[in-house]
Design brief:
The chain has 212 residues and is of the alpha/beta class. It has helices spanning 9-19, 25-43, 84-90, 137-148, 163-173, 203-208, and strands at 2-5, 49-55, 60-66, 72-77, 95-96, 98-103, 110-116, 125-129, 132-133, 153-161, 179-186, 189-190, 196-197. It binds 1-O-pyrophosphono-5-O-phosphono-alpha-D-ribofuranose, uracil (URA) and magnesium ion (MG). Keywords: Allosteric enzyme, Glycosyltransferase, GTP-binding, Magnesium, Nucleotide-binding, Transferase.
């Protein structure tokens, strides 16, 4: 498993504004999209391509196109939906599948309440979008789901992760070079309620309002 923290002043600045508890939902949504676009640039570095012939006004040349089957983008609802627009702006030909997962805040069990994905993911490169990697329970479930359907490799794009969540993913997929994680920030720790510290609070609530 490869973990990449994108070290760039634009990313660091946008994450700082996102963390601020006074940042409003409209600004939070805008920054989330902008951050995904910056992270997607790194996350798609190994997307499979084929050579194509291009005729410029001057000459024939060889260009690049995405290989088939086309990449699949999977936002994890709710909070991952806030990252979808930023990702599809950069990869407009990607297909999109949906996973609805929620963490029970008392037991930390993961409930999968919705799924709309192709039945067979054989040969697919999958990009999972979820802003927060806390205990890792959600991403472990999501990755299992995608590999069970036959996905070739899974790249998770997250804004903020806790070391505990990365350790959980490492324990499941440490030796697996099909799993890749791209982050804007690796934070300090989880608190007693398994929220990321310093984090940004509940990403779903900050994007869309209170869930309860
Ligand atoms: O690493 P974990 O401990 O599993 O926690 C991370 C999950 O928690 C948040 O979703 P949440 O369950 O709050 O659902 P929501 O997006 O509907 O708010 C977040 O978007 C992740 O999916
Ligand atoms: O800090 C956290 C942890 C889980 N989910 C969130 O949205 N935020
Ligand atoms: Mg939430």
């Amino acid at each position: 498993m490869r973990v990449q923290v994108v070290d760039h002043p634009l990313v660091a600045h946008k994450v700082s504004v996102l963390r601020d508890k006074n940042t409003t939902s409209p600004v939070f949504r805008q920054l989330t999209e902008e951050l995904v676009t910056l992270l997607a640039y790194e996350a798609t570095r190994e997307v499979r391509t084929v050579d194509v012939e291009v005729e410029t006004p001057v000459a024939l040349t060889t260009g690049t196109a995405f290989a088939k089957p086309t990449p699949l983008v999977v936002p994890i609802m709710r909070a991952g939906l806030g990252m979808l627009e930023g990702m599809t702006r950069l990869v407009p030909t990607a297909e999109v599948g949906f996973l609805g997962m929620a963490r029970n805040e008392e037991t930390l069990d993961i409930i999968t309440y919705a799924e709309r994905l192709p039945a067979d993911l054989t040969g697919r490169q999958v990009f999972v979008l979820d802003p927060m990697l806390a205990t890792g329970g959600t991403l472990v479930e999501a990755i299992k789901f995608l590999f069970d359907r036959g996905a070739d490799d899974v790249t998770c794009i997250c804004l903020i992760a806790a070391p505990e969540g990365i350790a959980r993913l490492e324990s499941e997929h440490g030796a697996d070079d099909r799993v890749h994680l791209v982050l804007a920030s690796l934070d300090e720790r989880l608190d007693e309620k398994s929220y990321i510290v310093p984090g940004l609070g509940d990403a779903g609530d900050r994007l869309y309002g209170l869930a309860h």
